[in-house]
């Protein structure tokens, strides 16, 4: 009951960035938008990098996530956009994205054009504006195409890669939580 009370207190707290440590290495962190549950005590190393050769599913161990990359017909993407994409998905103009993709941590100096904006923004400033705690920033996968960040995983895609009326093929990127090994809830 004390652990549940601690999580409820964290949820109603007005301060983003708080955390609650629970048994089995479970950590609950408060962000400005939600509570994040994780099992990792430390962020991945700054040099984490995965290569994505093309559409498919890639296990991102360091981020405790699965990345699904798939091409969609424009009609299916339009339906998905109308119903509203979850934050864990990005729909991009496939003609503007070149493979292979890299998935890595952010690095100082990384810049992108956040969807809905015109100018470049440093990722450090983007994270600060969203009040993402410094300790959580290396846990956010950054998807790179042709040396350019195209999606800050779970947060925002790059404006230059958005789906437009001229888009013929749509690339969907989706992040799903990967259950930790030995997790009693999944039996893995």
Can you tell me about this structure?
Helix content is 17%, strand content 34%. It contains 4 helices and 14 strands. The longest helix is centred in the N-terminal third of the chain and has 11 residues, at 2-12. The protein is of the alpha+beta class and 188 residues long. The model is unreliable at 181-188 (pLDDT under 50). The protein has a 5-stranded antiparallel beta sheet, with no helix packed on it. The chain has a 4-stranded antiparallel beta sheet with strand order 5-6-14-7.
List keywords for this structure.
4-stranded antiparallel β-sheet; 188 residues; alpha+beta
Share in β-strands = 25-35%
The overall pLDDT average reads 84
- Gyration radius, in Å: 17 Å
How many angstroms separate the termini?
Answer: 27 Å
Sequence stretches where pLDDT stays below 50 over 5 or more residues: 181-188
Helices, by number, come to: 4
Counted beta strands: 14
Summarize the structure.
With 188 residues, the protein is an alpha+beta fold. The chain contains four helices and 14 strands.
List the helices and strands and how they pair.
Elements: H1 2-12, E1 19-22, E2 26-30, E3 35-38, E4 49-52, E5 56-60, E6 65-73, H2 74-83, E7 89-93, E8 101-104, E9 111-112, E10 121-122, H3 123-129, H4 134-137, E11 142-145, E12 148-152, E13 156-157, E14 169-177
Antiparallel strand pairs: 1-2, 2-3, 4-8, 5-6, 6-14, 7-14, 8-11, 9-10, 11-12, 12-13
């Amino acid at each position: 009951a004390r652990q549940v009370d601690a999580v409820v207190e964290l949820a109603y707290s007005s301060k983003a960035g708080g955390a609650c440590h629970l048994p089995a290495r479970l950590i609950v962190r408060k962000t400005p938008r939600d509570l994040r549950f994780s099992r990792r005590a430390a962020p991945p190393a700054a040099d984490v990098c995965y290569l994505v050769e093309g559409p498919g599913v890639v296990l991102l161990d360091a981020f405790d996530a699965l990345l699904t990359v798939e091409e969609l017909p424009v009609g299916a993407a339009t339906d998905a956009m109308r119903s509203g994409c979850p934050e864990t998905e990005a729909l991009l103009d496939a003609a503007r994205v070149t493979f292979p993709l890299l998935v890595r941590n952010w690095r100082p100096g990384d810049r992108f054009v956040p969807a809905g904006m015109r100018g470049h923004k440093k990722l450090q400033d983007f994270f600060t504006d969203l009040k993402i705690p410094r300790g959580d920033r290396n846990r956010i996968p950054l998807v790179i195409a042709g040396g350019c960040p195209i999606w800050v995983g779970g947060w925002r895609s790059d404006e230059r890669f958005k789906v437009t009326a001229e888009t013929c093929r749509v690339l969907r990127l989706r992040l799903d939580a990967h259950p930790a090994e030995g997790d009693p809830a999944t039996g893995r």
